[in-house]
UniProtKB/TrEMBL annotation:
Database matches in CDD domains: HMA
Occurrences of domain HMA (ranges): 1-63
Name assigned to this protein: Copper chaperone
InterPro entries: Heavy-metal-associated_CS, HMA_dom, HMA_dom_sf
Keyword Metal-binding: yes
């Protein structure tokens, strides 16, 4: 499960935006967002690069992937 460090996450709306973007790519993806740390954990069959791209398309910056 990749863990993305994302900047710009500050509220519940941000969580919903990221979740909706990821689930638009993979409807079965499980998304966990930690606002305090900016970490987004995604359980998905999609490659990390594709997941990062949809997060960035939603208006957030992916600064690291573990």
């Amino acid at each position: 499960m990749p863990v993305f460090t994302v900047t710009g996450l500050s509220c519940g709306h941000c969580v919903r935006s990221v979740t909706k973007a990821v689930q638009g790519l993979d409807a079965t993806a499980q998304v966990q967002v930690e606002l305090a740390s900016g970490e987004v954990r995604i359980d998905s069959a999609q490659p990390a690069e594709a997941l990062a791209a949809v997060i960035e398309a939603a208006g957030y910056s992916v600064v690291a992937v573990k």
